[in-house]
Specification:
By secondary structure, the chain is α/β, with parallel strands linked by helices. It folds into two domains: about 1-120, Rossmann fold; about 125-260, Tumour Suppressor Smad4. It contains six helices and 18 strands. The strands form three sheets. The chain has a six-stranded parallel β-sheet with strand order 3-2-1-4-5-6, sandwiched between helices. It has a six-stranded antiparallel β-sheet with strand order 8-7-18-15-10-11. β4, α3 (about 70-80) and β5 (about 90-95) form a beta-alpha-beta unit.
């Protein structure tokens, strides 16, 4: 078995977790691939120096499983680097909420045993593909969570002309617009009032940010529809965020969003469901009344 390891180098607790991981797999037939930046961080902050690691220096690698050690942001970065390789990702949470990285850090050893005994469920998650009208070559053109159209400055709202399947739908007058997958329904979209979808839903969510109209609400559409966006703003520029990876675009540039032709595989421990995550992370259904 070959395991690729990615991690958040801004959380010092990852050093102890990496040591545990190296020691756990040392006597087993497991080949470890370590992200180059993570390796440099570990080497600079640990006296323990494993000598049997292979380094990941580009996105040209293969593995049977990927470990993402950090929060959901680290998981999204890992998913971008995995791309269409069809490698399942198991998230070890060292962050706060952890919907994607849902294995608590203190249960790392239990998770490693689950890997060795193949006690994992694999869930397929929909990705969205982004195309920009200038046909630029985007390094990571897909998202697992969401695409966000945001203001570049704080002076005025955006007007976002939206078409669905080529048909004009609505002009959002708002601070922005989020186009989310079911996986992303519990992320940014949820914070602006968007609905929660189970990860297996075949849908896309359109959630306006601070809409200037009381008649505009989040909308759920089939995931085989295309979403075309044309933005108008006083400054002439707007911000495009792809799972947190941001760039500034001129308003003359249009965006097309559609379902990607591959999925991301999310690995979960057995007997752990999305409903369990809702209850533990969002306190779903908790009644504090006496």
């Amino acid at each position: 078995m070959t395991i690729a390891i990615f991690g958040n180098t801004f959380r010092p607790t990852i050093i102890a977790q990496l040591k545990m991981l190296f020691q756990h797999f040392r006597q087993r037939e497991v080949q470890l691939l370590l992200d180059n930046q993570l390796f440099e961080y570990f080497r600079a902050n640990s006296e323990f120096q494993p000598n049997d690691l292979l380094l990941i220096e580009s996105d040209d690698f293969q593995a049977d499983l990927a470990l993402s050690i950090g929060g959901d942001g680290t998981f999204l970065t890992t998913a971008a680097r995995i791309g269409s390789k069809n490698i399942p990702i198991l998230g070890i949470n060292t962050g706060r909420l952890g919907f994607l990285a849902d294995v608590p850090g203190d249960q790392l050893e239990k998770a490693l045993d689950a890997i060795l005994h193949n006690h994992l469920n694999i869930e397929e998650r929909t990705l969205l593909k982004i195309e920009i009208s200038d046909k630029r070559n985007m390094h990571y053109p897909t998202v697992l969570n969401d695409v966000s159209i945001l203001k570049q400055d704080s002076s005025s709202m955006l007007t976002i002309h939206t078409a669905l399947n080529g048909q004009p739908f609505n002009s959002y007058h708002a601070d922005g617009l989020i186009v989310a997958t079911p996986t992303g329904s519990t992320a940014y979209s949820l914070s602006v009032g968007g609905p929660i979808l189970v990860p297996q839903s075949k849908n896309i969510i359109l959630s306006p940010i601070a809409s200037h109209s009381l008649t505009v609400r989040p909308l759920v559409i089939p995931d085989d529809w295309t979403v075309d966006l044309e933005v108008r703003t006083r400054s002439g520029y707007y911000q495009l965020s792809l799972d947190g990876r941001s760039t500034v675009l001129e308003q003359e540039l249009k965006i097309r969003i559609s379902k990607a032709d591959y999925t991301i595989k999310v690995a979960r421990q057995l007997h752990h469901s999305f409903v369990d995550t809702l209850k533990s992370k969002l306190m779903w259904g908790v009644d504090k009344r006496n």
